[in-house]
Protein backbone atom coordinates (compact mmCIF):
# COMPACT_ATOMS: atom_id res chain seq x y z
CA UNK A 1 0.00 0.00 0.00
CA UNK A 2 1.38 3.41 -0.98
CA UNK A 3 1.59 5.88 1.90
CA UNK A 4 -0.40 9.05 1.25
CA UNK A 5 1.05 12.01 3.17
CA UNK A 6 -1.15 14.51 4.95
CA UNK A 7 -1.69 18.01 3.61
CA UNK A 8 1.47 20.08 3.92
CA UNK A 9 0.15 22.30 6.69
CA UNK A 10 -1.09 19.33 8.72
CA UNK A 11 2.15 17.38 8.26
CA UNK A 12 4.15 20.17 9.91
CA UNK A 13 1.65 20.78 12.70
CA UNK A 14 2.41 20.13 16.35
CA UNK A 15 -0.84 19.43 18.22
CA UNK A 16 -2.11 21.84 20.85
CA UNK A 17 -1.06 20.76 24.33
CA UNK A 18 -3.82 21.32 26.89
CA UNK A 19 -3.19 21.73 30.61
CA UNK A 20 -2.22 18.56 32.46
CA UNK A 21 -5.34 16.84 33.89
CA UNK A 22 -5.58 16.14 37.61
CA UNK A 23 -6.27 12.45 36.89
CA UNK A 24 -3.01 12.13 34.95
CA UNK A 25 -0.93 13.53 37.81
CA UNK A 26 -2.77 11.27 40.25
CA UNK A 27 -1.77 8.25 38.18
CA UNK A 28 1.83 9.39 37.80
CA UNK A 29 2.57 10.36 41.41
CA UNK A 30 -0.15 8.63 43.39
CA UNK A 31 -1.33 11.94 44.85
CA UNK A 32 -4.88 12.86 45.73
CA UNK A 33 -4.54 16.40 47.11
CA UNK A 34 -3.90 18.16 43.81
CA UNK A 35 -4.55 21.76 42.83
CA UNK A 36 -4.97 22.51 39.12
CA UNK A 37 -4.26 26.11 38.16
CA UNK A 38 -3.37 25.42 34.55
CA UNK A 39 -6.39 25.85 32.31
CA UNK A 40 -8.04 29.09 33.45
CA UNK A 41 -11.13 27.27 34.70
CA UNK A 42 -13.61 28.85 37.09
CA UNK A 43 -12.65 27.57 40.57
CA UNK A 44 -16.33 27.76 41.57
CA UNK A 45 -17.33 25.35 38.82
CA UNK A 46 -20.65 26.32 37.29
CA UNK A 47 -23.89 27.79 38.59
CA UNK A 48 -26.30 25.50 40.46
CA UNK A 49 -28.95 26.74 38.05
CA UNK A 50 -26.91 25.26 35.21
CA UNK A 51 -26.83 21.86 36.92
CA UNK A 52 -30.58 21.97 37.46
CA UNK A 53 -31.23 22.93 33.85
CA UNK A 54 -29.01 20.15 32.49
CA UNK A 55 -30.53 17.54 34.83
CA UNK A 56 -34.00 18.45 33.61
CA UNK A 57 -32.98 17.71 30.00
CA UNK A 58 -31.18 14.38 30.42
CA UNK A 59 -34.09 12.52 28.85
CA UNK A 60 -33.30 14.30 25.56
CA UNK A 61 -29.85 12.72 25.16
CA UNK A 62 -31.19 10.31 22.55
CA UNK A 63 -32.23 13.10 20.21
CA UNK A 64 -30.15 15.32 17.95
CA UNK A 65 -29.82 18.94 19.08
CA UNK A 66 -31.42 21.84 17.25
CA UNK A 67 -28.88 22.48 14.50
CA UNK A 68 -29.87 26.13 14.38
CA UNK A 69 -29.37 26.60 18.13
CA UNK A 70 -32.55 28.65 18.55
CA UNK A 71 -32.73 28.67 22.36
CA UNK A 72 -29.13 29.81 22.78
CA UNK A 73 -29.28 32.37 19.99
CA UNK A 74 -32.49 33.72 21.52
CA UNK A 75 -30.76 34.21 24.88
CA UNK A 76 -27.72 35.81 23.25
CA UNK A 77 -30.02 38.18 21.36
CA UNK A 78 -31.92 39.08 24.53
CA UNK A 79 -28.73 39.70 26.47
CA UNK A 80 -26.51 41.38 23.88
CA UNK A 81 -28.99 42.84 21.40
CA UNK A 82 -27.62 40.95 18.38
CA UNK A 83 -30.06 39.26 15.99
CA UNK A 84 -30.05 35.52 15.26
CA UNK A 85 -28.64 36.01 11.77
CA UNK A 86 -25.54 37.62 13.28
CA UNK A 87 -24.73 34.77 15.72
CA UNK A 88 -22.56 31.71 15.04
CA UNK A 89 -22.43 28.95 17.64
CA UNK A 90 -19.28 26.96 18.32
CA UNK A 91 -18.08 23.89 20.17
CA UNK A 92 -16.09 26.21 22.42
CA UNK A 93 -14.32 29.23 20.96
CA UNK A 94 -11.51 27.05 19.56
CA UNK A 95 -14.03 25.58 17.13
CA UNK A 96 -15.00 29.10 16.09
CA UNK A 97 -11.39 30.17 15.52
CA UNK A 98 -10.96 27.29 13.09
CA UNK A 99 -14.24 28.13 11.35
CA UNK A 100 -13.10 31.74 10.84
CA UNK A 101 -9.87 30.65 9.21
CA UNK A 102 -11.50 28.01 7.00
CA UNK A 103 -14.18 30.43 5.84
CA UNK A 104 -11.92 33.28 4.77
CA UNK A 105 -8.32 32.10 4.33
CA UNK A 106 -6.69 29.95 1.65
CA UNK A 107 -3.16 28.60 1.39
CA UNK A 108 -2.15 31.61 -0.73
CA UNK A 109 -3.28 34.09 1.96
CA UNK A 110 -1.71 35.36 5.17
CA UNK A 111 -2.95 35.64 8.76
CA UNK A 112 -1.65 38.26 11.21
CA UNK A 113 -1.41 37.69 14.96
CA UNK A 114 0.81 38.78 17.82
CA UNK A 115 3.77 37.17 19.49
CA UNK A 116 2.80 35.82 22.94
CA UNK A 117 -0.81 35.32 21.81
CA UNK A 118 -3.13 32.31 22.03
CA UNK A 119 -1.41 29.25 20.54
CA UNK A 120 -4.46 28.24 18.50
CA UNK A 121 -4.03 31.24 16.18
CA UNK A 122 -0.82 29.80 14.79
CA UNK A 123 -2.23 26.26 14.76
CA UNK A 124 -5.27 27.07 12.63
CA UNK A 125 -3.11 29.16 10.30
CA UNK A 126 -0.67 26.31 9.76
CA UNK A 127 -3.46 23.74 9.42
CA UNK A 128 -4.70 25.48 6.27
CA UNK A 129 -1.08 26.05 5.15
CA UNK A 130 -1.52 29.83 5.09
CA UNK A 131 1.29 32.31 5.64
CA UNK A 132 1.72 33.27 9.30
CA UNK A 133 2.68 36.87 10.07
CA UNK A 134 3.62 36.99 13.74
CA UNK A 135 4.10 40.57 14.94
CA UNK A 136 6.53 41.13 17.85
CA UNK A 137 4.75 41.95 21.08
CA UNK A 138 5.15 45.28 22.82
CA UNK A 139 6.43 44.04 26.14
CA UNK A 140 3.90 41.28 26.76
CA UNK A 141 1.04 43.02 24.95
CA UNK A 142 -0.28 43.36 21.40
CA UNK A 143 1.38 46.14 19.43
CA UNK A 144 -1.71 47.20 17.52
CA UNK A 145 0.11 49.87 15.51
CA UNK A 146 2.68 47.34 14.32
CA UNK A 147 -0.04 44.79 13.57
CA UNK A 148 -1.83 47.28 11.34
CA UNK A 149 1.42 47.98 9.49
CA UNK A 150 2.04 44.22 9.11
CA UNK A 151 -1.10 43.73 6.99
CA UNK A 152 -0.06 42.60 3.50
CA UNK A 153 -1.82 42.52 0.15
CA UNK A 154 -2.67 38.85 0.73
CA UNK A 155 -3.78 39.24 4.38
CA UNK A 156 -7.29 37.92 4.91
CA UNK A 157 -7.53 37.58 8.69
CA UNK A 158 -6.18 39.16 11.88
CA UNK A 159 -6.46 37.48 15.28
CA UNK A 160 -6.33 39.70 18.36
CA UNK A 161 -7.26 38.89 21.95
CA UNK A 162 -8.47 41.24 24.65
CA UNK A 163 -7.53 40.34 27.33
CA UNK A 164 -4.71 38.35 25.83
CA UNK A 165 -3.95 34.75 26.70
CA UNK A 166 -1.40 33.83 28.07
CA UNK A 167 -0.19 37.25 29.21
CA UNK A 168 -3.39 38.83 30.59
CA UNK A 169 -2.60 42.17 28.94
CA UNK A 170 -5.30 44.37 27.42
CA UNK A 171 -5.94 47.43 25.29
CA UNK A 172 -8.53 50.19 25.55
CA UNK A 173 -11.45 51.06 23.27
CA UNK A 174 -9.69 54.09 21.79
CA UNK A 175 -6.67 51.97 20.83
CA UNK A 176 -8.89 49.35 19.21
CA UNK A 177 -10.90 51.93 17.29
CA UNK A 178 -7.72 53.54 15.96
CA UNK A 179 -6.47 50.08 14.91
CA UNK A 180 -9.70 49.20 13.10
CA UNK A 181 -9.58 52.44 11.14
CA UNK A 182 -6.20 51.39 9.75
CA UNK A 183 -7.25 47.87 8.72
CA UNK A 184 -8.54 47.47 5.14
CA UNK A 185 -12.25 46.73 4.96
CA UNK A 186 -11.64 43.42 3.15
CA UNK A 187 -9.58 41.99 6.05
CA UNK A 188 -11.51 40.11 8.72
CA UNK A 189 -10.56 41.05 12.29
CA UNK A 190 -11.30 38.49 14.99
CA UNK A 191 -11.56 40.00 18.47
CA UNK A 192 -11.18 37.03 20.82
CA UNK A 193 -12.83 37.89 24.14
CA UNK A 194 -12.59 34.63 26.07
CA UNK A 195 -12.00 36.49 29.35
CA UNK A 196 -14.00 39.68 28.86
CA UNK A 197 -16.57 38.81 31.56
CA UNK A 198 -14.04 39.26 34.36
CA UNK A 199 -13.61 43.00 33.77
CA UNK A 200 -16.55 43.98 31.53
CA UNK A 201 -16.45 47.62 32.55
CA UNK A 202 -13.20 48.17 30.65
CA UNK A 203 -14.23 47.40 27.09
CA UNK A 204 -17.50 47.28 25.13
CA UNK A 205 -16.72 45.52 21.88
CA UNK A 206 -20.32 45.20 20.70
CA UNK A 207 -20.64 48.88 19.81
CA UNK A 208 -17.94 48.40 17.16
CA UNK A 209 -19.93 45.77 15.26
CA UNK A 210 -22.05 48.44 13.58
CA UNK A 211 -19.04 50.53 12.59
CA UNK A 212 -16.90 47.70 11.22
CA UNK A 213 -18.62 45.00 9.10
CA UNK A 214 -15.30 43.12 8.93
CA UNK A 215 -15.26 42.55 12.72
CA UNK A 216 -16.01 39.23 14.42
CA UNK A 217 -16.36 39.17 18.22
CA UNK A 218 -15.69 35.73 19.69
CA UNK A 219 -16.88 34.63 23.15
CA UNK A 220 -16.66 31.41 25.15
CA UNK A 221 -18.72 29.93 27.99
CA UNK A 222 -15.74 27.95 29.30
CA UNK A 223 -14.19 30.53 31.62
CA UNK A 224 -16.28 32.84 33.78
CA UNK A 225 -19.48 30.87 33.09
CA UNK A 226 -17.81 27.61 34.15
CA UNK A 227 -18.91 25.40 31.23
CA UNK A 228 -15.47 24.18 30.12
CA UNK A 229 -16.50 20.51 29.98
CA UNK A 230 -19.51 21.22 27.77
CA UNK A 231 -17.66 23.18 25.06
CA UNK A 232 -19.84 26.04 23.90
CA UNK A 233 -19.10 29.50 22.55
CA UNK A 234 -20.55 32.02 20.14
CA UNK A 235 -19.43 34.64 17.65
CA UNK A 236 -21.09 37.94 16.77
CA UNK A 237 -20.61 39.59 13.39
CA UNK A 238 -22.44 41.15 10.46
CA UNK A 239 -25.18 39.08 8.83
CA UNK A 240 -23.03 38.69 5.71
CA UNK A 241 -20.00 37.38 7.58
CA UNK A 242 -22.20 35.13 9.73
CA UNK A 243 -23.81 33.67 6.62
CA UNK A 244 -20.42 32.47 5.39
CA UNK A 245 -19.47 31.07 8.79
CA UNK A 246 -22.64 29.04 9.04
CA UNK A 247 -22.08 27.53 5.60
CA UNK A 248 -19.14 25.51 6.95
CA UNK A 249 -20.18 25.15 10.60
CA UNK A 250 -21.12 21.58 11.41
CA UNK A 251 -24.93 21.50 11.91
CA UNK A 252 -24.74 19.82 15.33
CA UNK A 253 -21.48 21.32 16.60
CA UNK A 254 -23.07 22.38 19.91
CA UNK A 255 -24.93 19.65 21.77
CA UNK A 256 -28.33 20.12 23.38
CA UNK A 257 -27.15 19.92 27.00
CA UNK A 258 -24.45 22.49 26.28
CA UNK A 259 -27.02 24.90 24.84
CA UNK A 260 -29.38 24.38 27.78
CA UNK A 261 -26.49 24.96 30.19
CA UNK A 262 -25.36 28.07 28.30
CA UNK A 263 -28.84 29.62 28.45
CA UNK A 264 -29.03 29.03 32.21
CA UNK A 265 -25.48 30.36 32.70
CA UNK A 266 -26.17 33.55 30.76
CA UNK A 267 -29.27 34.20 32.86
CA UNK A 268 -27.55 33.69 36.23
CA UNK A 269 -25.98 37.12 36.67
CA UNK A 270 -25.45 36.62 40.42
CA UNK A 271 -23.11 33.67 39.76
CA UNK A 272 -21.10 35.73 37.27
CA UNK A 273 -20.79 38.56 39.77
CA UNK A 274 -19.61 36.11 42.45
CA UNK A 275 -17.08 34.68 40.00
CA UNK A 276 -15.74 38.19 39.38
CA UNK A 277 -15.42 38.85 43.11
CA UNK A 278 -13.58 35.58 43.74
CA UNK A 279 -11.29 36.28 40.80
CA UNK A 280 -10.40 39.79 41.94
CA UNK A 281 -9.72 38.60 45.48
CA UNK A 282 -7.60 35.72 44.20
CA UNK A 283 -5.70 38.02 41.87
CA UNK A 284 -4.88 40.33 44.79
CA UNK A 285 -3.81 37.33 46.88
CA UNK A 286 -1.39 36.06 44.23
CA UNK A 287 0.00 39.51 43.48
CA UNK A 288 0.70 40.10 47.18
CA UNK A 289 2.31 36.68 47.41
CA UNK A 290 4.56 37.32 44.42
CA UNK A 291 5.62 40.64 45.86
CA UNK A 292 6.55 39.01 49.17
CA UNK A 293 8.60 36.45 47.25
CA UNK A 294 10.30 39.19 45.22
CA UNK A 295 8.85 37.95 41.92
CA UNK A 296 7.66 40.15 39.10
CA UNK A 297 4.35 39.52 37.35
CA UNK A 298 2.41 40.92 34.40
CA UNK A 299 -0.74 42.85 35.44
CA UNK A 300 -3.78 40.97 34.17
CA UNK A 301 -7.45 41.54 33.41
CA UNK A 302 -8.24 37.87 33.00
CA UNK A 303 -8.54 34.96 35.44
CA UNK A 304 -4.85 34.10 35.36
CA UNK A 305 -1.55 35.82 35.89
CA UNK A 306 1.87 35.47 34.24
CA UNK A 307 4.66 35.34 36.80
CA UNK A 308 8.43 35.62 36.32
CA UNK A 309 9.84 32.73 38.37
CA UNK A 310 13.41 33.87 37.64
CA UNK A 311 14.26 30.28 36.76
CA UNK A 312 13.76 27.65 34.09
CA UNK A 313 9.96 27.45 33.75
CA UNK A 314 10.01 23.76 32.81
CA UNK A 315 12.06 22.88 35.88
CA UNK A 316 9.81 25.00 38.10
CA UNK A 317 6.71 23.45 36.53
CA UNK A 318 7.99 19.95 37.23
CA UNK A 319 8.93 20.90 40.77
CA UNK A 320 5.42 22.21 41.37
CA UNK A 321 3.94 18.97 40.03
CA UNK A 322 5.76 17.05 42.75
CA UNK A 323 4.11 19.37 45.28
CA UNK A 324 0.69 18.59 43.82
CA UNK A 325 0.24 21.87 41.95
CA UNK A 326 -0.40 22.07 38.20
CA UNK A 327 0.32 25.38 36.43
CA UNK A 328 1.20 26.10 32.80
CA UNK A 329 4.45 26.77 30.92
CA UNK A 330 3.58 28.98 27.94
CA UNK A 331 6.82 29.24 26.01
CA UNK A 332 7.89 32.58 27.50
CA UNK A 333 11.34 32.58 29.09
CA UNK A 334 11.32 32.40 32.91
CA UNK A 335 7.53 32.72 33.07
CA UNK A 336 4.65 30.48 34.11
CA UNK A 337 0.95 31.15 33.73
CA UNK A 338 -1.11 30.57 36.86
CA UNK A 339 -4.92 30.41 36.90
CA UNK A 340 -6.70 32.15 39.77
CA UNK A 341 -8.09 29.55 42.18
CA UNK A 342 -9.89 29.61 45.50
CA UNK A 343 -8.17 31.21 48.48
CA UNK A 344 -6.97 27.79 49.68
CA UNK A 345 -5.75 26.74 46.23
CA UNK A 346 -3.86 30.01 45.77
CA UNK A 347 -2.25 29.61 49.21
CA UNK A 348 -1.11 26.07 48.41
CA UNK A 349 0.40 27.25 45.14
CA UNK A 350 2.29 30.12 46.77
CA UNK A 351 3.70 27.83 49.46
CA UNK A 352 4.73 25.26 46.85
CA UNK A 353 6.29 27.94 44.65
CA UNK A 354 8.33 29.27 47.57
CA UNK A 355 9.54 25.74 48.33
CA UNK A 356 10.46 24.92 44.73
CA UNK A 357 12.28 28.23 44.22
CA UNK A 358 13.88 27.97 47.69
CA UNK A 359 12.48 31.31 48.74
CA UNK A 360 11.10 32.38 52.10
CA UNK A 361 7.55 31.08 52.39
CA UNK A 362 4.62 33.47 52.15
CA UNK A 363 3.00 33.98 55.55
Automatic annotation (TrEMBL):
Pathway: Amino-acid biosynthesis; L-histidine biosynthesis; L-histidine from 5-phospho-alpha-D-ribose 1-diphosphate: step 7/9. Pfam families: Aminotran_1_2. The modification N6-(pyridoxal phosphate)lysine is found at residue 223. Its EC number is 2.6.1.9. One of its GO terms (biological process) is L-histidine biosynthetic process. It catalyses: L-histidinol phosphate + 2-oxoglutarate = 3-(imidazol-4-yl)-2-oxopropyl phosphate + L-glutamate. Its cofactor is pyridoxal 5'-phosphate. It is an enzyme of class 2 (transferase). The keyword Transport does not apply. Residues 32-353 form the Aminotransferase class I/classII large domain. GO terms for molecular function: histidinol-phosphate transaminase activity; pyridoxal phosphate binding. Homodimer. Keywords: Amino-acid biosynthesis, Aminotransferase, Histidine biosynthesis, Pyridoxal phosphate, Transferase. It comes from Acinetobacter pragensis. This is Histidinol-phosphate aminotransferase. Coiled coil: none annotated. Belongs to the class-II pyridoxal-phosphate-dependent aminotransferase family. Histidinol-phosphate aminotransferase subfamily.
